[in-house]
Protein: 3-isopropylmalate dehydrogenase
Amino acid sequence: MNYRITVLPGDGVGPEVMAEGMKVLEAVAKKFGHTFKLEYELIGAVAIDKTDFALPEETLKMCKKSDAVMLAAVGDPRYDDPKLPVHPEDGLLALRKGLGLFANIRPVKVFDELVNASTLKAEVLKGTDFIFVRELTGGVYFAKPKKEWLTTKGRKATDSMTYSEQEIERIVRVGFELARSRKKRLVSVDKANVLKSSRLWRQVAIEVSKDYPDVALSHVLVDACAMQLIRTPTAFDVIVTENLFGDILTDESAQLAGSMGMLPSASLAGIPQSGKPTFGLFEPIHGSAPSIAGKDIANPIATILTVAMMLRYSLALEKEAASVEKAVEVVLKQGYRTDDIMADGNTRVGTRQMGDLIAAEV
Structure:
């Protein structure tokens, strides 16, 4: 089969980890007889430097023509000043909106070999394996009014948290579909004791649950969820929540796996169903990490596992996805580690060597 992939290496360590992800994808192509046409485009700081735009029009056009999009990272300290007219992260937000990517899927799995990499007790973490479903194009990040102004008493600023029942319904359905394919448990996270938008969220979740009688739905307030993720992470299977809450909770969950360099993500434009392709943008959850760029020490595993998610969700290639995930597991069992997950008794490897090892195992 032939597939067209838009590749966005981005900033910082992005090009380094993306190179290893594409190395593994090439190994998949050779093993299973596929052809992946890779088309590279600009996004983030590197795009601003060359075009003055964080998301050039040509990049968005190319993405829309593709079967899937792979993104590494955006961000550059040169653009940290909030007074600047454009920032690298603007490109990512515009890309999500431009491609209609409303569902962010973040699996959180603690490999047995890395159970001691986290600061939490091993007995708490062992067996952790759940999926976060985060609404991505609504809520406080996008709703209006959104402004800052000067009053006679000083400066003020406002952001609006707004959700329609249609936005809530489609993201909750993603959660139910994923839960149905796993342990049939869905937790919906909100702040219904305080927020009107959360009360609507809970009402819609209950209404949608009638279409999924085989899935057990429960509701957890966001602050309680934050505590439970640390105390009993193995209690979760699939978690669905709105944009801001999901942004915070998924980064918290990243620490369960020992490093943000271990976790992939997918942003989908449709409701995933087994065996059917769903267009999406696939990216590791970590940032551009400019302080370690070019040093061959960044962990490429999150990007490599992101390749597996692309194979599974956008290309409907389940065997190929599983082969990548298995290769990662085998290499970890062999004791190879990048700096961020290094421990006594392991073999330290760099970004490129880790990619080589996993590609060879595929």
Observations:
- The chain has a mean pLDDT of 95.
- The two ends are 18 Å apart (CA to CA).
